[in-house]
Amino acid sequence: MKKIVYIFLMIAFASANAQIITDRPTQTESSLTVNSGDLQIESGYLISFENDLKNTLAPVALFRYGITKGVEVRILSQFQTAKENNITSKGISDLQIGTKIQLLNNEDVNTKIAFSSQLSLPTGSKGFSSEKTGSINRLSFSHSITNNTGIGYGIGYDYFGFGNGNAIYSISLGTAVNNKVSIYIEPYGTFVNLNNHISNINTGFTYLQNDYLQFDFSFGTGINQKSNYISAGISWLIKHKSSI
Questions:
Q1: Where are the strands (E) in 106-194, listed by range?
Q2: In the record, which residues are listed under signal peptide (predicted)?
Q3: What pLDDT score was predicted for residue 242?
Q4: I need a surface site. Which of 124, 157, 201, 242 has the fewest CB within 10 A?
Q5: Which CATH number characterizes residue 55's domain?
Q6: What angle do CA 148, 17, 118 make, to 5 degrees?
Q7: Quick check: 4 pLDDT over 90?
Q8: How many structural domains does the chain have?
Q9: What's the domain range around 202?
């Protein structure tokens, strides 16, 4: 059963032996929360290209802290560099702060469900801030198919103070290659302003160094538009003494 730990890859199904369970590198968030008293840091580096615009996010830092069983608080911060037509600008993106709540996590049920909601605060640098308070919401599901393979999917709605907001979806299929390496493939997309559909696909892998440290690599491309990205990251679980 230990292999189930590595399936999560980014889909995250759970088993009693699971240690580090991350939200990165997939678009589909984990359907599990961090255990009470534990701190998890998920950091990465991402470069994306869209037409003549090159965006670099480095570092991206997500802090997850379990405040009680099935509930975690989350803080996301990232430094962004944008380059277009040989003009480069740098700054900090809007701070995101919120929570994830476990809705279903029963060992007798093959489905895990969690809901996360974060406020996007207009704290970013000029040119990198929406200048309005927004919200980012996700409902995440996961199911194990076999001991080595599982599927996760999510839906969401983001609103940043203007227009109709964006509807989000993603479906991630992952499998464990061995007790260290897992791979996944994931189509995902956005209905911008609840109208214009942008679809993408990505793939990647995770490498579990130990129960508390995981490395990841991913890349993706647009399906109905010209865009692509590449990303690498590291996640670190700091266990509370009482849970070790």
A1: 111-121, 134-144, 149-159, 166-176, 181-192
A2: 1-18
A3: 62
A4: 242
A5: 2.40.160.40
A6: 90
A7: no
A8: 1
A9: 3-243
